């Protein structure tokens, strides 16, 4: 077990409390009582320790079960270290997800946030959530959980703008990185993803909600033995858009479905979600310089809504071959429009 090291450069917030839920009392530690200056200049790094969650979910009884570590309303925060944050999620994964904490580490209403050099293992659900935050850099993280642990997304980003996620290794039981609604200007680069469900925009538009996602760039990343590679998933009945998205210079190794747009996402209940008139509008999505191996015939699946087709899909240099030469990779196209140029394999019949 390493040392967890938090560097807190206080900006606008005069007081920061670190609440370690379930740690026994006191539940809240005021870092000012532990030598932090909080003057925006001093390096308040003396707050060290090993961060490990209680083994037993019953420790959360009577307190907010959606949280473990939370940083809220902080500007100019630098969380960095060489140690480990261990959510000991094994006992949570066995239970109904309704009572699981949503995130091991949640950053909410933060701005100018840096999260670097951390290692997060076996989170109860999402490892790291970035909510309602602006100007965030996440870099050099290692996030691990078993491939079969439920909903252990690596990094979840929602209601946040100007976010950079880079140089990180993420292997979990769900999406390596997932992007929710109201997200604008996100750069994801040099990620090694796997095992897990790949990098996902969505799911968006659940239960008729409105969602907007724009200017998301995923580049120079590798996917190893993931179920999906780069995915956009939306529910029928949603409102809003996902547009200006690009996936470039990525490699896939033994990935079930390397490229997928699924506008019929239904959380594992096929047929339960009816086609609807409202739907998230997916447009201007670029796939360029993507290559590797697909474990199923559905190497490319563009499954767009009947009421509002996907448009301005642009493919340029995409080559996906079979993992084992027994299957024949295909491109499936439903209500999808756009252009293809350069070498494209398998051929995408619906594009010009
Ligand atoms: C954050 O802290 C790390 C470790 O001390 C340091 O290397 C890095 O430069 C800091 N980043 C910023 C933006 O201050
Ligand atoms: C993908 O594979 C190619 C060929 O092996 C390599 O040149 C390229 O650097 C790889 N891309 C990444 C992001 O690792
Ligand atoms: C498509 O998205 C890119 C990247 O966000 C943007 O620069 C470009 O202007 C968009 N094109 C159209 C036609 O909207
Ligand atoms: C597209 O989605 C529909 C509805 O969920 C499903 O029936 C169909 O099999 C999907 N097609 C492909 C090629 O994934």
UniProtKB/TrEMBL annotation:
What biological process terms from GO does the record include? carbohydrate metabolic process; cell wall organization
- Lineage summary: Eukaryota, Viridiplantae, Streptophyta, Embryophyta, Tracheophyta
Task: Give the signal peptide range.
Answer: 1-23
Recite the UniProt keywords alphabetically: Cell wall, Cell wall biogenesis/degradation, Glycosidase, Hydrolase, Secreted, Signal
Q: Does the keyword NADP apply?
A: no
Places the protein is found: Secreted, Cell wall
User: Is the keyword Nucleotide-binding assigned to this protein?
Assistant: no
One MF term from GO for this chain?
Answer: polygalacturonase activity
* A Pfam family assignment: Glyco_hydro_28
Name of the protein in its database record: Polygalacturonase
SUPFAM superfamilies per UniProt = Pectin lyase-like
Q: Which family does it belong to?
A: Belongs to the glycosyl hydrolase 28 family.
What are the coiled-coil residue ranges?
A: none
Top-rank taxon: Eukaryota
């Amino acid at each position: 077990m390493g040392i967890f090291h938090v560097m807190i450069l206080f900006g606008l917030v005069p007081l920061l409390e670190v609440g370690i839920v379930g740690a026994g009392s006191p539940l809240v530690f005021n870092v000012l009582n532990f030598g932090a200056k909080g003057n925006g200049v001093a390096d308040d790094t003396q707050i060290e320790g090993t961060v490990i969650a209680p083994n037993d979910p019953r420790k959360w009884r009577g307190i907010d079960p959606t949280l473990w570590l939370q940083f809220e309303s902080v500007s100019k925060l630098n969380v960095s270290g060489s140690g480990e944050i261990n959510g000991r999620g094994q006992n949570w994964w066995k239970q109904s997800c309704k009572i699981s904490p949503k995130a091991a580490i949640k950053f909410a209403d933060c701005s100018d946030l840096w999260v670097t050099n951390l290692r997060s293992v076996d989170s109860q659900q999402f490892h790291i959530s970035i909510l309602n935050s602006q100007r965030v850099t996440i870099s050099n993280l290692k996030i691990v959980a078993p491939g079969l642990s439920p909903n252990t997304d690596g990094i979840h980003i929602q209601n946040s703008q100007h976010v950079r996620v880079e140089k990180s290794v993420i292997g979990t039981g769900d999406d390596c990185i997932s992007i929710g609604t109201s997200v604008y200007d996100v750069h994801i680069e040099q990620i090694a993803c796997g095992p897990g469900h790949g990098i996902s925009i969505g799911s968006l538009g659940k239960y008729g909600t409105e969602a907007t996602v724009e200017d998301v760039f995923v580049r120079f990343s590798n996917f190893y033995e993931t179920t999906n590679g780069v995915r956009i998933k939306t529910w029928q009945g949603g409102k809003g858009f996902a547009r200006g998205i690009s996936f470039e210079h990525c490699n896939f190794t033994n990935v079930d479905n390397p490229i997928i747009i699924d506008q019929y996402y239904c959380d594992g209940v096929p047929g339960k979600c009816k086609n609807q008139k409202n739907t998230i509008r997916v447009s201007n999505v670029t796939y360029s310089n993507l290559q590797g191996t697909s474990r199923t015939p559905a190497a490319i699946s563009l499954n767009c809504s009947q009421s509002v087709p996907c448009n301005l899909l642009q493919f340029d240099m995409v080559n996906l071959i079979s993992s084992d030469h027994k299957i024949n990779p295909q491109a499936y196209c439903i209500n999808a429009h756009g252009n293809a140029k350069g070498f494209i394999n398998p051929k995408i019949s619906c594009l010009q």
